[in-house]
TrEMBL record:
Positions of transmembrane segments: none
Taxonomic path: Bacteria, Pseudomonadati, Bacteroidota, Cytophagia, Cytophagales
GO molecular function: ATP binding; kinase activity; metal ion binding
Transferase found in the keyword field: yes
PANTHER family registered for this protein in UniProt: LIPID KINASE YEGS, SPHINGOSINE KINASE
Pfam families per record: DAGK_cat (PF00781), YegS_C (PF19279)
Any one of the GO BP annotations: phospholipid biosynthetic process
Ranges in coiled-coil conformation: none
Protein name as annotated: YegS/Rv2252/BmrU family lipid kinase
DAGKc domain sequence ranges: 5-135
Domain of life: Bacteria
Alphabetized SUPFAM superfamilies for the sequence: NAD kinase/diacylglycerol kinase-like (SSF111331)
Keywords, sorted A to Z: ATP-binding, Kinase, Lipid biosynthesis, Lipid metabolism, Magnesium, Metal-binding, Nucleotide-binding, Phospholipid biosynthesis, Phospholipid metabolism, Transferase
GO cellular component: plasma membrane
Length: 298
């Protein structure tokens, strides 16, 4: 006697503005590649920034088992924050420019292969974090990388090349800022060029700010970078792209579940590469195994 299992709902949320590969025909890809014996699909397109969170929350309320973010880290962040504290899992079809979380989770960057992973439906739980109550899943940062995300938000150009151009432009005038960090009952005061918080190991584009970060270990990896001149910037850039920054004397690493930062002057900050604004007080917290995902984790 054959038994038919009920199909589960999957909702794809597509950001048409993300990434540089706008030519990909996502509806056809889903139509041709999705295992419709297992999944009952719907496809929604975002119409404005922030829309993906509303769509994901609604899909979770409607009993959808899996919501797939089709976009980059900004879209993934918006979808994932709509799924926190629900029984709905996150999937990713990476279509962004950096795809930091997808890369960390070993989700294939080729969309047909990423869809195959959705078909396999292997679920895991990962940690999530917040900076001043803004959820993030990959990385957040204060200082120079906050400033770069602010400049990138204003730029019309996407992609790695325009990111690098902005870094070079902003680096010329940026000065490290005085801050006090409370971490594991210790207080560290110094000028900091970057204070980075890593749930996943990389910013995106395989730029590894915390190569040893484990997204399931209940710990944030905090990377502190103090004074940076031109020589140090080149060394750090090399360390980021070769996964060797953790062995550099220019970067100091700590692991913790919460961290507070105080700065006399307002500092720019970002969550998952999206510019948030400026603040003088920062509270960064990790929530263990708080998001269910489909990924290729071992
Ligand atoms: N319909 C839309 N119109 C304009 N902006 C949108 C729309 N939908 C989403 N957005 C915004 O687009 C921004 C960029 O999206 P996303 O981060 O996914 O792509 P990306 O920047 O190319 O990739 P990555 O972050 O991986 O580099 C997000 O901040 C999101 O809020």
């Amino acid at each position: 006697m054959s038994q038919t299992l009920a199909r589960q709902k999957v909702c794809f949320i597509l950001n048409p503005k993300s990434g540089t590969r706008s030519g990909v025909d996502v509806p056809s890809l889903i139509e041709q590649g999705l295992d419709t014996q297992h999944w009952e699909p719907c496809l929604l397109k975002t119409e404005y920034a922030g829309h993906a969170t509303e769509l994901a929350r609604q899909a979770a309320e409607d009993g959808t088992r899996l919501v797939v973010a089709v976009g980059g880290d900004g879209t993934v962040n918006e979808v994932a924050r709509g799924l926190l504290h629900t029984n709905t899992a996150l999937g990713i079809l990476p279509k962004g420019s950096g795809n930091g979380l997808a890369r960390h989770l070993k989700i294939p960057l080729k969309l047909p292969q990423a869809l195959e992973l959705i078909n396999k439906a292997t679920f895991h739980h990962i940690d999530s974090c917040s900076i001043n109550s803004h959820p993030f899943f990959c990385t957040a940062g204060i200082g120079f990388d906050g400033l770069v995300s602010s400049a990138f938000a204003k730029s019309v150009k996407r992609g790695l090349a325009s990111y690098v151009q902005l870094i070079i432009k902003e680096f010329r005038t940026y000065l490290a800022q005085e801050a006090t960090i409370q971490i594991n009952d210790r207080e560290l005061s110094s000028e900091f060029f970057v204070i980075a918080f890593a749930n996943a190991s990389q910013y995106g584009n395989d730029a590894f700010i915390a190569p040893m970060a484990d997204i399931q270990d209940g710990l944030l990896d905090v990377c502190l970078i103090r004074h940076v001149g031109l020589t140090e910037a080149l060394q750090l850039g090399y360390g980021l792209m070769t996964k060797t920054i953790s062995t550099s004397s220019l970067a100091e690493f700590h692991t913790c579940a919460t961290v507070q930062v105080h700065s006399q002057i307002p500092q720019h900050f970002h969550a998952d590469g999206e510019y948030i604004g400026q603040a003088t007080q920062f509270e960064v917290t990790l929530f263990p195994k708080s998001l269910e995902i489909v990924a290729a984790l071992g």
